[in-house]
Amino acid sequence: MSLVTFAAGLILLVLGAGALVRGASKLALSFGISPLVVGLTIVAFGTSAPELAVSVGAVLDAKTDLAVGNVVGSNILNVLFILGLSALIAPLVVNIQLIRQEVPVMLGASLLLLALGMDGRLSMTDGGLLFALLLAYTAFLVVQSRRETQAARDEFAEAVKAAEPGAWDSHWAAQIGLIGVGLAGLVAGSDFLVQAAVSFAKAMGVSDLVIGLTIVSAGTSLPEAATSIAAAFKGERDIAVGNVVGSNTFNILGCLGVSGLVSGDLGLVMAPSLLSFDIWVMLAVALACLPVFMTGREIARWEGGIFLGYYAAYVAYLTLAAQQHDALPAYSGVMMGFVVPLTVVTLVVMLIRRPPAADAH
Asked: Can you state the angle between helices 172-204 and 64-77, rounded to 10 degrees?
């Protein structure tokens, strides 16, 4: 029964996010807002709507471990699994603006989350700070978009189109209806998903945090996965990367920001295992993006394979730790004593030996 509830929740989340983005995008375009601004705000945030809905739903259900684990797990999965799989399909182009601006912002948000959570909880004030930074960053992107090239404007105009005259969704009432249906789908889907996640945790004998870091984060990241993998197949390889980086920033500033605001005086509890391991993995993954992205400004297939291998290793560690398996000390020793140092050395060498910068994409 939990599997059926989980599947129903996922379907409602994905369909709800799609309806919300479609209705809000077309309503904004009908008011004369440019496709570029709509793409940078409504469409970009829409792929993270499931994470937001599930995290807020978990907080309202007093499952704060699930809320935080969902965001941290999604950010790790977005880079290691989604970018890794997309790069295997086709080497991914990295826009120079991602290296200079978007990745540093994602890194800064990750560091801020670590700093705010070191006291063991994310307070309502902390949530307000994160959300305020999201609003400020969104405003900055909108102002910055006015200086974009015509090619960039045309690219967004192709991806974000207004409703055709006479089409069923061309009237504002239909667009508002889509927004309402989308919000209802997100609320219902998040409720189903949280219920299923709690049942999974009890049945498997693991914590809500582990379920949030794995099963729930994989489910809520479906829109990002669909967008990035489809972009890789269609040859829109820079969109695949930008989608993931933007989503990670929104997950921290938006999902945890709103979740912190609705958590009240209790705030969001940051589990000791999260602070000692998982957030550091999220930070390391974000940090690893810089040297990987800067070498030739692309993610090669072999780098995508390494990303996927690391995600498998991370999930294996969580599984062994949840079961308190006898193999955990040996596994941790190999990872921390050999694999991680070798990866760090490789990234440093790649960064030192990277080719001279080419023209910006």
From this structure: 100
At 206, the amino acid letter reads V
Return the bridge partners of 92, or none: 299
User: What is the spatial distance between Cα 105 and Cα 107, in angstroms, rounded to a whole number?
Assistant: 5
Q: What are phi and psi of 321, to 5 degrees?
A: -65, -40
CA distance 3 to 200: 9
Q: What's the sign of the alpha-carbon dihedral 346, 351, 357, 359?
A: positive
Q: Nearest-CA neighbor of 31 among 15, 42, 19?
A: 42
Provide long-range contacts, Cβ within 8 A and 24+ apart, for 24-31. 24/175, 24/178, 24/179, 24/182, 25/160, 26/162, 26/163, 26/169, 26/170, 26/175, 26/178, 27/172, 27/175, 27/176, 27/179, 29/160, 29/161, 29/162, 29/163, 30/162, 30/163, 30/170, 30/172, 30/175
- Spatial neighbors of 161 by CB under 8 A, at least 6 apart, are 29, 35
Q: Could you give the 3-state DSSP secondary structure of residue 37?
A: helix
The predicted model scores a pTM of: 0.83
What superfamily in CATH does domain 2-352 come from?
NCX, central ion-binding region (1.20.1420.30)
DSSP 263-307: TGGG-EE--HHIIIIIHHHHHHHHHHHHHHHHSTTEE-HHHHHHH
Q: 164-188: per-residue pLDDT in tens?
A: 666 766 777 888 888 888 888 888 8
Give tens-digit pLDDT for 182-216: 888 888 888 888 888 888 877 877 888 888 888 88
What token pair was written down for 330? Answer: 């040996």
Q: Backbone dihedral region of 267: left (phi > 0), alpha (psi from -120 to 50 degrees) or beta?
A: left
Neighbours of 4 (CB within 10 A): 10
pLDDT digits (tens, 9 = 90+) for 51-95: 888 899 899 988 889 899 999 999 999 999 998 998 898 888 777
